[in-house]
Amino acid sequence: MAEEITNGIFLNGKNKLIKMFQLLTEEEKKSLLEKVGRKNPKLAEELKFKSITFKKMFSLNDKSIRLVINQINPSILGVSLKGSPIKQQRRILSLAKRDYAEKAFSMLTTSISDEEKSVIKSQQKVIESIGSLNKMGLVEI
User: Fold this and answer.
1) How buried is 14 (Cβ within 10 angstroms: 0-12 exposed, 13-18 middle, 19+ buried)?
2) What number does CATH give the domain 53-141?
3) Per-domain residue ranges for the chain?
4) pTM of the complete model
5) What is the structure's pLDDT at 12?
């Protein structure tokens, strides 16, 4: 997707496409990626990687979640889970080793300054880990 200038306004079509792509269901994403991949495999791979959201963590299988946990510091994981549904928090933490889960839970339940910004940064690290593991063929997204 090329960047354009329309009536003096700079538009970045790829970034808009990525944001829209994040709103699609998994089935819609898969279908669209197949179609894009036939004409532009590089763009399809970029869309796939950049459209990962933190919620993807909750749809991964147990083995994949354990791989992500092995890549993430427990403090970062704990902060990233703040605001997530309790059922999902429990599932993720139950897949970690006890000492790791305790450290993550401690951060999850501790009030921190500038919490919203910290949660977003921590979630981004988890997203990057999922994407990295996907590129290595270890996690299916």
Assistant:
1) middle
2) 1.10.220.30
3) 1-51, 53-141
4) 0.75
5) 63
